[in-house]
Amino acid sequence: MKQTLIYILLVFSSIFSALAQEKDTLNFGTKSKSFITDSTNFTAYNFAKSSPFYLKSLMPLKYNRLSAGYNFEKGNLTLAQNATSLNNANLITEGISQLNSISIWGQFSYHKIVEDSTAFAHQTRNNVANPYYFGSPKSVSYQRAIYNLKALASRNFIQNNLPIGLGVDYRIGNHYSTNDPRGDIGDYQLNLIGTIGYNLTKSLRVGAGYRYGYGLEKVNVAYKNSSVSQGKLIPEFNNYLINGYGEPEIFNTDRTFQNNSTRNGIDAYIGYNSNKIGNFNFSFQAIKEIQDYNYRTGEGITEYIKFNIVNEYYKLLWLKNISKNSLSVELGYQTNDGDNFINKYLANSYLYNNNILNLKSAFTLKKNQFSHNFVIGLRKYEERKRDGIAGNDIRLNQLNYTINYGLTHVNEKSQSWGFSITGIYDQYLDSDFEVLRINEGVFTRNVIYHDYAYNTTSKFGGNLTFDYSIPLFNQIQAGIKWSTTYLRRNDLQDFGRILTKVPGKDRFFSNISLNLYF
């Protein structure tokens, strides 16, 4: 709470500073609003958030936004361990400014999330591989409060040829269910980065970075009604330990553990800028994370498993200005490879792998008082989970398409309105499915079968967004934004198993936000 109050004071001090500008000063609110509606510039801005190396080359000199929003989701077209309905109230502020020769970017976000009908998922939802967690067949309502603070800073030395940067990413989460079985999860994650670069020529720059991070998750499952705590009266109240991706074991005693994680990684950067061919930016990241799951009492520490995961990211961004118009092309490739080591068996039992290939292109056409944004995107996603104890081996392969058109109009009084429309299609490509019937149990029927059916059907839908803003005082733009998304699936694939829990036909998303730009 103390951190929240400090943050609110900082926000209001920023607004006060904006109001204190001379009346003939350029309207920063209008510039910030125009910046966020330019698809190519905003693509570069989001690319630069990953490292302080890009602060001075890809971010504007000044941009600030404060947003209060509400998201709503409902529908059974989702993975088995996701909520059938979700409410998310959030407060987000971000911006970049210059302090003498130092560029500083920061972002703070707060999310209050309420999930309904969550089963087999006492987890933070921050771990892509999910190697070790508790879960129950009984659906529970989850509440989550998540705070996230990010900051980047960069300064040039030696006649602006030696940029040095620092960054921090700190997240705190509190997750708990409000009915039995009552999961209670507290977590924090701290990630740091330091970068150094050198301008080899006026056009070519190179750089490198080092990343370090650590975190902690503490998990506990309890029951207010002790008569159902052992699952004898009602089996769906049993607590299960999901260790890998096979049938779990009932775990109704010592329902607590913690996960101590550490991360180390390196970055490499290359940037090239030419008036003729445009601006090229390439980045590489490799991060190795070790997750140590254990049980702690006053008598000592019992080691459960260690999970190692290696993340690699390759990203290339090309920007090109064509008169008043602009073009961006972003290409990315990401892999996550994880394996566990179970102390009980002194062996590996769970292997996780995914790889993601992204291609996104945006073109912004400006004419008179109108801005036209055209965006197309492709995303190929492949995932494989192998559980040696259960004998499960499941692979999926998907291709996701998006196409978007947006229009923004700004009049002489700096009032603006806009809309965008997006088409979405998720195509199932191919998959492998090996699950032994002899190991079929409550988790396999309700989660593994359900998720395989969900992932092997194609889906289609669309998004519609409206935006309106007006000048407020002298240096602020105030606006409202509303969007809605609808997704629907095709027929399910027949893979020779009986589904006790079938993915729903559709899912609905809606968002509304109030925004200040300054």
UniProtKB/TrEMBL annotation:
Matches recorded under InterPro entries: DUF6850
Signal peptide coordinates: 1-20
Record's keyword terms, sorted: Signal
Domain DUF6850: 55-518
Record protein name field: DUF6850 domain-containing protein
Protein source organism: Pedobacter frigiditerrae
